Amino acid sequence: MSEYVGIVGKKGELYPPKELREKADLYPGDKFIGTIVDGKILLRKKKTIDDVLREAPLATVTLEEMRKQREELERSLR
After folding, report:
1. 44-59 pLDDT tens trace
2. Which of 13, 15, 16, 46 qualifies as a FRET site for 5, CA 20 to 30 Å off?
3. 3-state secondary structure the chain
4. Are strands 32-37 and 40-45 parallel, antiparallel or unpaired?
């Protein structure tokens, strides 16, 4: 595990070093999610729809399966 030193600005801005941002795939304008675990701040990039679409699918569904699910849903809503 690597450690990096960043700076907190006058208004509370976080300035992580370039190497850390690049390894975390964070670029200007990106959003991130912060959590606190045992007194430590953990940051991770908030995924965009583009990020999700580039990932491998979790499952595959045939057109026939989708039609069947839609029919069942329509019946349940009547």
Report:
1. 999 999 989 999 999 9
2. 46
3. CCCCCCEECCCCCEECCHHHHHHCCCCCCCCEEEEEECCEEEEEECCCHHHHHHCCCCCCCCHHHHHHHHHHHHHHHC
4. antiparallel
Q: pTM here?
A: 0.60
The CB-side HSE value for 48 (13 A sphere, CA atoms) comes to 8
Q: Which amino acid is at 13?
A: E
Domains of the chain by range and CATH?
7-77 (2.10.260)
